[in-house]
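Standup notes, structure subgroup. Blocker cleared on the pyridoxal-5'-phosphate input:
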Amino acid sequence: MPFQAKKMGKIPPYMFAEFARKKAEMTKAGIDVIDLGIGDPDLPTPDHIVDKLVEEVRKPENSKYPSFVGHIEFRKAVANFYKRQFNVELDPETEVLALIGSKEGLAHIVPTLIDPGDTVLIPDPGYPPYRMATYLAEGTVYYMPLKEENHFKPVFADIPEEVLTASKLMFLNYPGNPTAATVDLTFFKEAVSFAKSHQIVIAHDSAYNMVTFQGYQAPSILQVEGAKEIAVEFGSLSKTYSMTGYRIGYAVGNKEVIQSLSVYKNNTDTGQFTPIQLAAAYALNGDQSCVQKHNDIYWERMKAMIDGLKAIGIFAEPPKGSFFIWAKTPKGYSSNEFAQKVLDQSGVIITPGNAFGPSGEGYFRISLSLPNERLYEAIERMKNNISLSK
Ligand SMILES: *Cc1c(COP(=O)(O)O)cnc(C)c1O
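Run returned:
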């Protein structure tokens, strides 16, 4: 391919491409395929947020270029949310940056902080953009394996000294995608102290911070004393308020990192449409009952899917956060073999764990962001059609 930089060659073909092809083929053959692969809320954005967006779109002044760093009302709303939820003080002027979805910031923080050849510490399995952004910035990926016996937390002491010397940035993500793992503040304390001693910036991805169950509250890494010296946290409205299509998120924490990221962004994009920022501010400041309502629905789905899996001999722990089930493939099946089997025998798409990194091998991910009737149909089909003997 002549019209492509060499670094682009490192980006593997879209991980869902093969499944998309197969799905299209089966659909054409008249099979009703149910896709449990995609993590995108089916529940609608709450009405009060949509109404606010429409109101703001009608104001002529809102059609101008937005503020580079984000509308001050949005940045104040994020600070207000951090105070209310985590008792963390943030200066909306210097410690909060608006993003065009958190993925945008997670991708842009890499070239903001690393030079070609520098190392980035990446959770494995993990959200693919951490790795892809590192390839595009010509950095070196170092995988931190997340093992079940360590509750899907990295073991910092296992990272070789020479890797640490070359590292500028470490990604963390709890509640995690794809593992659905959660942590307590003790882990974040350990991470902050480790990162400080090696001068490695932590980028904590908290996309699922409010998608939690059974009274569990996900901590913010910024609750750790002194975390702002080394850490930034990325948050999003996408999952909390079913606003994935709006593209609105934020980075908070270390001032210098926020400042550098905002310079990178000033020269790359021009911020998110003002009405979307104002609707997001309204979401963060307004009635939060919609969040619990959505979480209750995810939790019911979670229990139903876990029971369904049990019926075919697969045991999965109910997670405390995220809308994913991460479970071991049955004995004798690789991730790909099992995903293939589920698709062939029941017309249901699940994601093979190795799509999220080498340590995901031997696992699969199910997303619960699908309407109940489709999800329950998928459960029935899996129960009735999947036999694990080869
Ligand atoms: C969905 C998701 C995001 C990103 O969401 P945006 O819509 O870009 O804000 C970030 N991290 C993880 C792990 C996700 O699953």
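Discussed briefly. The CA atoms of residues 164 and 198 lie 7 Å apart.
Next: hand off to the docking folks.
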